Amino acid sequence: MKTALCAAGALGGLCLLICFSAQAKTAMRETLSMCAAVMVPSLFPMMTISGFLSACPCPAFLRRRCAAPLRALFGLSPGCLTPLLLGLTGGYPLAAKAAAEASKAGVIAEEDARRLTLFFTCPGLPFAVVAAGEGFFGSRTVGITLFVACAVADASAAFLWNRLHPAGAAPAEAIPQQRFSPGQALVRAVERAVSSMLSVCAWICAFGTLLAVVNALAGDGLSRRLPLIAEITAAVRTAAEQKDLPLTAACLAFGGLCLMCQLLPELQRCGAGAARYLAVRSVCAGLAWLTETVLLRLFAVPVPTDSRLGTIPLSANSVAGSAALLFCGAVFMAETARLSSVGAKERATVPEVPVKRKARVKFRN
Known about the structure:
The protein is mainly alpha-helical. The protein has helices spanning 2-19, 21-55, 60-74, 81-89, 92-105, 110-119, 124-136, 140-164, 182-218, 220-223, 227-230, 232-242, 245-254, 257-262, 264-270, 274-299, 319-349. Helix 2 (21-55) crosses helix 17 and helix 8 packs across helix 16. It starts with a helix and ends in a 16-residue tail after the last helix.
């Protein structure tokens, strides 16, 4: 029965794409332009550096200093420090992917990975400040307030959950005893960042095309509300057109159904279902709306009135991400030079083994 329903849904979607091919082509062109102008410049550098940092061993003194606050506030183990910081500052999929990798390596427990995936799915500095703030609102100050509102909302939700469901005793920290190679870590980070970026852009294009077809069927009434929960870039664009900063913060904290589809493998791996994820993100969206409202009243942040609000920005460069990529390039070149020198020394110190020649046997007639 389920297979038949899926086949019928796929056939119906194909018929809708054929009937509304013009709207689908226009939406695909717009989402591809937006991915090239906003998502790739703002997210790919941070994905690369976050993958590199997640492979770096965290200093022991930093783990010891942060062990008690992490356990008391959020119920997390010391090994969660790097995924937590990456999730708050790097962007949406980073915390979940870093938590999944740490759980697979045995650094953190499954409960830690579940809490990181549910509560620390933050838009991060690149998307909140650069893409949403500067790109859609034309103001870096607005982007900073959006980032602070989302980070405070996620931390508050994790704190409240830990009060209602306190974590047990901290397990013994397991630190994998493997040699760290900066060059290999950087290569793996770039490969994973490319894979993640392709997945993000593919999901954005798919949901953008789906929204265009649904809007052509339902009209303007649904087209103003559905993007707020379907896909994050469409949600930010819709909120920017309404010049509603608290609504923008709520959309950024929620993430959208598109983000949930991207995180389904990580949600299944850590034992957190889609229904629980949507419930937690809804609570975070409400807290982000409240926090952004308080920030606007406390600091009197001016809402931009530019007529280009909500349009696709031409560029969304990240200075921090560019500097991070330059740092990764320097590390890669240094590691390559080190490996070359080590190989040359090993070849110089290895004694040559004389090759034994086989004696020729002469046959006499």
